[in-house]
């Protein structure tokens, strides 16, 4: 007998039933915990009486990954009570920069080493194209509890679909994430600081969420400059410039997109002529210019380093991921931090903000045997129950379903929730490539941006040309694009 046949003989579960996963569980979530829920729970589960060990791969040092794992015992209690099977979870992890390789090395061997993976959103193509993760279209059709209304199209585009613009679903949101501006509310409210600012600029400092929502970069620069006091070891601003993983890329895309630029054409795979425009080169120069308001060593600031300088009181403000809100606002800073939308670029009616999407989807190992596949799908059904989503939010996580985010109390659960919801709306945040060659394209980009901000390269146009030409060649070689790099590319370098 095959492994699947042995499982079917032992459990009575047919392979086609696995695709339905926790259909009953999903329906129970819709029906609530009344008579219908009890009736469904009374139906024997094919894993009843069995013990299953599940393995999750997630991001080391990343709070949202840890939250998802920390909540897994609640799932174990739930299925034990409802379906009479026992499940335990093991968690393995790797840093952002290493996690994809760890997952890919295992999945390439068709291993069940990781039953569920917390993937970065940009990896969907690289994991889906070789058939390593489960296509979820049929799973969703069979499970009403997974047929959610998401808060925005950006959620679906970022965490769920590949190819871009298609209806093929490969992931479900584990943690939503957007860029936010964290500012020291206590500094803003200091009467002496407010008086000094108004005396200098002839107008009051912004103070409320609504004030910052309308702020432009030019207006915000007055604040960044005002609080930059090197003699007191205090600076006005911080953002990510690090070459590690995608840190500089996400921070620079905020400038590029908000100032009207694009990175590529996802339909044709064209990069050259889109990324390396003079306008985008000017945006790169502007991104670097803001280093003047950042603390020493700012070109090495990534996520963790950004948390450190903010919590240590070295900076007044920082553009940082909403997902690290719990780390940015520890106990000693509670009530002293305001989390607001990042400033708009431009002036007047033309001013706009388009920031990078962060966050991660759950993806399911396509090589799971029937038992582990069933538990994985049961887990997804449980994760999107209203009570689970609310518990995730109360622990500091960022769910993405419209029902949870539309609760009248959602904005008050965490200090960043109002801004998270605001920036999650369509047109305010977006993701970049889901192409299978994501990591190769990213490496070139990070090399170029890092070289420029650290003065190893001094011409922003040359940097953008170098990146665009290299990425165009990568996409041509992979077959994503039929567009060849132009003759100009033969002479590009950093």
Automatic annotation (TrEMBL):
<dbReference type="InterPro" id="IPR006059">
    <property type="entry name" value="SBP"/>
</dbReference>
<dbReference type="InterPro" id="IPR050490">
    <property type="entry name" value="Bact_solute-bd_prot1"/>
</dbReference>
<keyword id="KW-0813">Transport</keyword>
<dbReference type="InterPro" id="IPR006311">
    <property type="entry name" value="TAT_signal"/>
</dbReference>
<protein>
    <submittedName>
        <fullName>Extracellular solute-binding protein family 1</fullName>
    </submittedName>
</protein>
<dbReference type="GO" id="GO:0042597">
    <property type="term" value="C:periplasmic space"/>
</dbReference>
<comment type="similarity">
    <text>Belongs to the bacterial solute-binding protein 1 family.</text>
</comment>
<dbReference type="Pfam" id="PF01547">
    <property type="entry name" value="SBP_bac_1"/>
</dbReference>
<keyword id="KW-0732">Signal</keyword>
């Amino acid at each position: 007998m095959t492994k699947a046949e042995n499982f079917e003989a032992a459990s009575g579960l047919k392979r086609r039933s696995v695709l339905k996963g926790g259909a009953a569980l999903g329906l129970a979530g819709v029906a609530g915990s009344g008579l219908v829920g009890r009736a469904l729970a009374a139906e024997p589960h094919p894993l009843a009486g069995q013990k299953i060990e599940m393995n999750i791969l997630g991001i080391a040092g990343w709070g949202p990954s840890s939250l998802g794992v920390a909540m897994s015992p609640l799932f174990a209690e739930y299925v034990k009570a409802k379906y009479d099977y026992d499940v335990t979870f093991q968690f393995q992890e790797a840093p952002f920069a290493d996690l994809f390789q760890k997952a890919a090395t295992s999945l390439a061997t068709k291993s069940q080493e990781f039953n569920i993976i917390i993937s970065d959103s940009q990896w969907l193509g690289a994991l889906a194209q070789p058939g390593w993760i489960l296509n979820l279209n049929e799973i969703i059709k069979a499970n009403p509890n997974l047929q959610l209304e998401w808060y925005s199209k950006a959620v679906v585009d970022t965490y769920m679909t590949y190819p871009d613009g298609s209806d093929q679903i490969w992931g479900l949101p584990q943690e939503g994430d957007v860029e936010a501006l964290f500012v020291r509310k206590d500094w803003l409210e200091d009467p002496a600081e407010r008086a000094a600012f108004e005396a200098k600029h002839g107008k009051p400092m912004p103070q409320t969420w609504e004030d910052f929502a309308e702020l432009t970069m030019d207006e915000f620069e007055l604040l960044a400059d005002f609080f930059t006091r090197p003699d007191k070891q205090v600076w006005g601003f911080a953002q990510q410039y690090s070459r590690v993983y995608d840190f500089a890329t996400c921070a620079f895309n905020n400038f590029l997109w908000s100032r009207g630029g694009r990175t590529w054409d996802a339909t044709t795979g064209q990069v050259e002529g889109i990324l390396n425009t003079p306008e985008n080169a000017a945006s790169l120069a502007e991104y670097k210019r803001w280093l003047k308001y950042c603390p020493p060593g700012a070109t090495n600031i990534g996520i963790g380093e950004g948390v450190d300088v903010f919590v240590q009181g070295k900076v007044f403000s920082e553009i940082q991921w909403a997902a690290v809100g719990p780390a940015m606002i520890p106990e000693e800073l509670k009530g002293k931090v305001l989390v607001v939308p990042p400033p708009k670029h431009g002036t007047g009616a033309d001013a706009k903000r388009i920031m990078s999407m962060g966050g991660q989807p759950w993806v399911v190992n396509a090589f799971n045997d029937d038992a582990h596949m069933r538990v994985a799908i049961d887990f997804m059904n449980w994760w999107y129950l209203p009570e689970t989503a609310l518990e995730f939010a109360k622990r500091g996580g960022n769910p993405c379903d419209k029902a949870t985010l539309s609760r009248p109390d959602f904005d008050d659960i965490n200090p960043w929730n109002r801004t998270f919801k605001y920036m999650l709306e369509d047109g305010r945040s977006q993701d970049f490539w889901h192409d299978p060659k994501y990591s190769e394209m990213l490496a070139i980009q990070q090399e170029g941006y890092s070289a420029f901000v650290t003065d190893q390269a001094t011409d922003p146009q040359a940097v953008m040309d170098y990146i665009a030409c290299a990425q165009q060649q990568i996409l041509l070689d992979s077959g994503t694009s039929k567009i060849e790099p132009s003759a100009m590319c033969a002479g590009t370098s950093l």
